[in-house]
Design goal:
The complex is a heterotrimer, with 1 copy of chain A (261 residues) and 2 copies of chain B (200 residues). Chain A is mainly α and 261 residues long. Chain A contains 8 helices and 6 strands, in the order E-E-H-H-H-H-H-E-H-H-E-H-E-E. With 200 residues, chain B is of the alpha+beta class. Classes of the chains: A mainly alpha (261), B alpha+beta (200). The interface between A and C is large, with 58 and 64 residues. Chain A: Component of a cohesin-like complex composed of ScpA, ScpB and the Smc homodimer, in which ScpA and ScpB bind to the head domain of Smc. The presence of the three proteins is required for the association of the complex with DNA.
Chain lengths: 261, 200, 200
């Protein structure tokens, strides 16, 4: 534990102090720095323990408490504002010390925890996170060890993607519009075979490019009977809607379809 | 120590801005600063290395800069896509009517919806390549007949229009199952059965 | 069309931030989006290509990032006048507690550190986007629970919290008790110094 390098506690006239002077005499301005060096009472206690190369598990409470109180007295003498935590720790140390001095009366109370146990637990816990902080600080991090590599992008203008639509949205929209239409009652919508309407679109599409096609060419034998019927119905519907017309030059001649107009 | 051109590559990529030769020199300790000629030679090597890659080294007014060549802008620009907006209910209803009632005229859509269909909706749907004009109805005014496109089917992962969900869609079978379980669980005197009903 | 890995190189360099696989997929048009496996393979190729170069490809919490390896920091850091920020022990200890103990309340941090945590430290950590409030403990006062963010992992070159170096093993409280019992079995005043060597 003593191997852990301590940062300089203070600089006095430019001289770095890594060890507090044994006689505890610290120039006032250095003490202020010293107070900032410690992260709190646990940190100060850990420092005192490490400095004397003691085992946390066997803290000589009387000694440590005395030293701790000396520091506190000095700080107060110098009218440094002491955080309440330091005073709380002093009270706790005094309590532990007094309990250790009491004789252990009965066997039953032998079971009682060592009054130092809680202090030891907290010191060790804090020590772990002191270590963790060092480990974290040592990790390679951006802007110190590693740097984001970037190249000037060729363009910055953003693209706005078209809105996504789900099939369910579509169905919901249709249901809604049909419900609304039914409410008004003017236009009862009857469900039509989709495939006929689809085929109507396909026939029209075909005529869009060809303008003129043989009736028989619309049929695909591989679609089977259903396919033939659907195509036939589509053609009939288109005729009824006056989109198409049938042309036959003479009886039994081939029938042609063409767009009206 | 890494090669000069490798150090320059690292420095230029980390900088994120054009660096003049003087600044490139200054990334080396004073005693080791390369001559400008050495720097220029190393930068020329990098330029060659980058041929056919996703980056290029160019000299601009304020120095040398690594940039992504313009040929990559189709991909790069998609990085900053804005959030997609959503379509209006009017547009979805129009699309649904074209899908289920095609070929259909705008007037027919308006009749069912009870309101007029704005031109911008028809334009948007055509620009998205989801609907197109497949003909005209031979009535006065020869209104255009709209149908859905192949791109529409592709977008919705449909092989043909017959795969569109039927209008009177049956309820989700899972939901029906859960409903049944709930109903069956009630009359049961055994309180443990209720714990067996699936969560819904 | 350029090779997949070249497109990825261009996109990653243009982005200047970590990109998850999903975002890499989305720089391709809908119909041409490569599979995640293809992307991973291309990224692996890039990783190999970058060996010994001034850049490297790493995966951090938010995705894949191209960065300048730490070996170049002596040169790169000379680019800027300012030295990289150093953080106080108080800030690092607080960050370590949030990282290893998350989700954790300010009170719990103070309990371990034995001092109150200054508001400015919590503010700095949140402004750096290293920690954030993820909820509240349901006890009187509903104290905020803090956790680290993805940006924290990104910044420290980590893919997930599990990559954090392990925390020194806690000493089992029972073991501490037993050890103490053994040592004080002979009633001793606390001034008695143990002759046993420290066991750690």
């Amino acid at each position: 534990m003593d191997a852990i390098a301590q940062p300089p506690l203070a600089r006095v006239d430019g001289e770095p102090y890594t060890q507090l002077p044994r006689d505890l005499y610290i120039p006032p301005d250095a003490l202020e720095v010293f107070l900032e060096t410690f992260e709190g009472p646990l940190d100060l206690l850990l420092y005192l323990i490490r400095r004397q190369n003691l085992d946390i598990l066997d803290i000589p409470i009387a000694t440590v408490t005395r030293q701790y109180m000396d520091y506190l007295a000095l700080m107060r003498e110098l009218r440094l504002e002491l955080a309440a935590e330091y005073l709380l720790m002093a009270a706790w140390l005094a309590e532990i010390k007094s309990r250790l001095l009491l004789p252990k009366p009965t066997l039953a109370e032998m079971e009682e925890d060592d009054p130092r146990a809680e202090l030891v637990r907290r010191l060790r816990e804090y020590e772990r996170f002191q270590q963790a902080a060092k480990v974290l600080d040592a990790l390679p991090r951006l802007e110190r060890e590693t740097f984001v590599a970037s190249a000037e992008p060729p363009c910055r203008e953003s693209v706005r993607p078209p809105p996504p639509v789900g099939l369910n949205d579509l169905l919901a929209a249709l249901r809604e519009v049909l419900t609304r239409a039914e409410l008004f009652g003017h236009h009862p919508i009857r469900r039509e075979t989709l495939s006929v309407r689809e085929r109507m679109s396909q026939v029209l599409e075909r005529l869009d490019t060809l303008r003129f096609t043989a009736f028989t060419e619309l049929f695909r034998p591989e679609e089977g009977r259903i396919g033939l019927v659907v195509t036939f119905l589509a053609v009939l519907e288109l005729l009824r809607e006056a989109v198409l017309e049938l042309v036959q030059s003479e009886p039994f001649a081939p029938i042609y379809l063409r767009r009206q107009g | 120590m890494p090669a000069l051109k490798t150090i320059l590559e690292a420095v230029l990529l980390a900088a994120g801005e054009p660096l003049p030769l003087e600044r490139l020199q200054k990334v080396f300790p004073e005693a080791e600063q390369p001559e400008r000629e050495a720097l220029r030679a190393a930068l020329a090597e990098l330029t060659v290395d980058y041929a056919g890659r996703g980056l290029e080294l160019i000299e601009v007014a304020s120095g040398f800069r690594v940039q992504v060549p313009g040929t990559f802008s189709p991909w790069v620009s998609r990085l900053w896509e804005e959030r997609a907006a959503t379509y209006s209910r009017a547009l979805l209803e129009t699309l649904a009517l074209v899908a289920y009632r095609q070929p259909v005229t705008r007037g027919e859509i308006e009749e069912v919806r009870g309101v007029s269909v704005s031109s911008s909706i028809m334009k948007t749907l055509q620009e998205r390549d989801w609907i197109k004009i497949v003909g005209h109805r031979e009535v006065p005014g020869r209104p255009a007949l709209y149908a859905t496109t192949r791109a529409f089917l592709d977008y919705f992962n449909l092989k043909s229009l017959s795969e569109l969900p039927p209008l009177a869609a049956p309820r989700d079978p899972d939901a029906i199952g859960a409903e049944l379980d709930r109903r069956i669980a009630v009359p049961s005197s055994d309180s443990t059965t209720s714990t067996e009903s699936p969560d819904d």
